């Protein structure tokens, strides 16, 4: 009994001692990320969280994008070159699942510094639309932004936690490479020239995130055993959370449902 109590209250006690030792400045209460140990996941015990994001009920019909203000943009979506573009706010797949849902772990991971991939996450501008519509990347991971169009774009990262910026990107200009140093899920990237252009970025401090695609599924791999809060985020329908336990060597499944 006493042993259980000690175990239960030890973390709180340690935290109290830590506060006492650090003085009163609140910013000392949590370590800066650079002071955290590097994450060390044992691949032998790591598991995978998989799931599907379902959409219940009738799929809303998204409006066609009116590009008439810019003939160069509109031309890209006229047959035989292309098809008319629709807003991508709500995209329900033919199998009744929801596309463009950002799924990530929000609680339960060890306090650690996760190394971002050096491979950039790529956001393209093509046919005066952002591609993909929702993109996940890690803090510190390069974001490479391309302009495949013959028109000028003005990329506007409307971040609130990270620094916001907007920059012109003419046709055939150098690719832009940006990074975000703070977690922020999600914020819009718009274009100051074309008001219909909108992408969403989810910046995660760890690698356990995914965006649902044409099958509505997500997979988070290499997750250390533990109890987690898993969160799904959709630009229109908002957030949903679920508790998930990953046991050593095992996979966990968690589905989400929107709509209805
Ligand atoms: Cu644009």
Tell me about this structure.
This protein has helices at 2-22, 71-75; strands at 47-56, 102-107, 121-126, 129-131, 134-138, 143-147, 153-157, 165-169, 176-178, 184-191, 198-204, 209-211, 217-223, 226-234, 238-246, 251-253, 256-259. The strands form 4 sheets. Strands 5-11-10-7-8 form a 5-stranded mixed sheet, with no helix packed on it. Strands 1, 13, 16 and 17 form a 4-stranded mixed sheet that branches. It has a 4-stranded antiparallel sheet with strand order 12-2-14-15, with no helix packed on it. The radius of gyration is 22 Å and the shape is globular. It contains 2 helices and 17 strands. The protein folds into 2 domains: 2-30, no CATH class; 47-259, Immunoglobulin-like (Sandwich). Helices cover 10% and strands 38% of the residues. With 260 residues, it is mainly beta. The structure holds copper (II) ion (CU). Residues 128, 153, 191, 193-194, 197 line the site of copper (II) ion.
Would you kindly provide a brief summary of this structure?
The protein is mostly beta strands and 260 residues long.
């Amino acid at each position: 009994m006493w042993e259980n109590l000690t175990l239960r209250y030890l973390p709180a006690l340690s935290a109290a001692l830590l506060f006492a030792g650090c003085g009163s400045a609140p910013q000392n209460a949590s370590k800066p990320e650079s002071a955290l140990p590097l994450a060390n996941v044992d691949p032998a015990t790591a598991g995978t969280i998989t799931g599907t994001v379902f959409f219940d009920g009738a799929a809303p019909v998204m409006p066609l994008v009116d590009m008439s203000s810019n003939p160069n943009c509109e031309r890209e979506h006229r047959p035989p070159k292309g098809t008319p573009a629709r807003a991508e706010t709500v995209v329900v797949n033919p199998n009744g699942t929801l596309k463009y849902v950002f799924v990530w772990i929000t609680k339960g991971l060890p306090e650690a510094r996760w190394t971002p991939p050096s491979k950039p996450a790529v956001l393209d501008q093509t046919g005066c639309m952002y591609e993909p519509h929702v993109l996940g990347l890690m803090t510190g991971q390069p974001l490479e932004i391309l302009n495949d169009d013959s028109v000028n774009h003005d990329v506007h990262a409307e971040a609130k936690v990270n620094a916001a910026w907007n920059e012109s990107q003419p046709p055939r200009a150098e690719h832009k490479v940006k990074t975000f140093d703070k977690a922020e899920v999600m914020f819009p990237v718009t274009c100051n020239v074309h008001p219909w252009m909108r992408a969403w970025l989810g910046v995660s401090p760890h690698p356990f995130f995914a965006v649902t695609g044409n099958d509505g599924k997500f997979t988070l791999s290499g997750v250390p055993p533990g109890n987690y809060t898993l969160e799904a985020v959709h630009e229109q329908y908002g957030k949903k959370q679920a508790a998930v336990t990953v046991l050593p060597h095992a996979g966990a499944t968690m589905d989400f449902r929107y709509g209805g």
